[in-house]
């Protein structure tokens, strides 16, 4: 998807990757005073509002010899002026994609934040994902309706994959006179939200589209982490503990646990590190092979021979090329959201390990396979994620009321900010195997690095190239537009204040 991002350069070299604003296509919009200035809760803070020049630095660890000013994002939080009259706002909330701990908390805090902080009284829930817009499935929301939904898993609005019809959705937004759209979802949902934003802009509508990133895999780029991730890692411990007990209690016992992680292995990696009972962790970012020196089976044999048991944690997206090759199938089917349907690596590993022990070693293998995927994603969020979801919801509210649109929210280096949607959908975040976190895992499990596989992969690529078959390449992220807009630094003095805001990070400003 070719989606330009507005980039603003300060005279001192600071770079701001800006989010769209309603005044970009509706320049004469009236402004209103923020009702938070009379809110007793914010009076205790002593400083109500975030300045337009407050930004958050993307990178805080730099080399002193090569450091520049780097990329910044707009800091999230309430602004002194807002672009919507609260009593006239008609807001709606929609949840898309799969379940994740914390969705109901986000819904609750959007509703309560709009109601109590800004005085908005018309808030609606769109049921069933994007297709709910044109199926006329809506429910009225207020603090009483959502008072205890954060204690439940799932989403009270129901969710679905696919169903995105831009014209029908924006027609419904116009017909129902919605002017604030809060969209909770992952990568595919964000792509849909960006298209909705662009269509609203094309039609000249005063509609703010605000996203809250949702992915239990923690693979949203730029932000520190996704909501629900901490809960997922915590709940995964129960499955790993059960696998460890089963393995310890049997001769030649192996506990095999499959966790979420379609393209990134964050849950598997962090759950492994938290457990300290895992002997091998397999993730999509690290190819592995079964047979031969340095292979998985050799390691399993040595570990079981040494300890009498072992525990393996595997991310669902690990080893997919190996599975497809062994099964003689390319398996390029996708679900309704465009995600590749995965082969079951857990069942495949179970079958191959048992076959090897039975046929090659003539020894019985007691392997217990545990797949807690739906148990993990359906539970309520823990205390940490509940607080995090509150901050995300409030950041989205403040941004929409301030007239920003086509953005998503999240913490960058702990400070919450507004990020252009094209920036987060340009690529997914993956585990960096050259990073110290993966080194810590290797040190904990003592697993091999499966050296030698890279040579095999390179040979396969060269073979494919000679046959004229090359893997599809994702289009690079485009940054096309450079400009300046009101409230942004134009000279050296203002630029220095821009940098100062990002470096000091005043903790008294509500985020």
Describe the protein in words.
This protein is an alpha/beta fold and 511 residues long. The chain has two domains: 6-226 and 381-427 and 476-504, 3-Layer(aba) Sandwich (Rossmann fold); 229-378 and 430-466, Phosphofructokinase domain (Rossmann fold), CATH 3.40.50.460. 36% of the residues lie in helices and 16% in strands. Strands 1, 2, 4, 5, 7, 8, 9, 10, 11, 16, 17 and 18 form a twelve-stranded mixed sheet that branches. The chain has a four-stranded parallel sheet with strand order 13-14-12-15, with helices on both faces. A two-stranded antiparallel ribbon has the order 3-6. The chain is elongated, with a radius of gyration of 25 Å. Mean pLDDT is 86; it is low at 467-511. It is an enzyme of class 2 (transferase).
Q: What are the key terms here?
A:
disordered C terminus; kinase; 6-phosphofructokinase activity; Rossmann fold; 511 residues; 16% strand; alpha/beta
Structural class: alpha/beta
Q: How many strands, what sense, and barrel or not for the largest sheet? A: 12 strands, mixed
Mean pLDDT across every amino acid position: 86
CATH architecture of the largest domain: 3-Layer(aba) Sandwich
CATH class descriptor name of the largest domain: Alpha Beta
Choose one word for the global shape: elongated
Oligomerization status of the protein chains: single chain
Total number of distinct structural domains:
2
The strand count comes to 18
Poorly predicted ranges (pLDDT <50, ≥5 residues)?
Answer: 467-511
Helical stretch tally = 16
**Beta-strand percent range:** 15-25%
The name CATH uses for the topology of the largest domain is: Rossmann fold
What Rg is obtained from the alpha carbons, in whole angstroms? 25 Å
Q: N-to-C terminal Cα separation, in Å?
A: 31 Å
Helical proportion, percent range: 25-40%
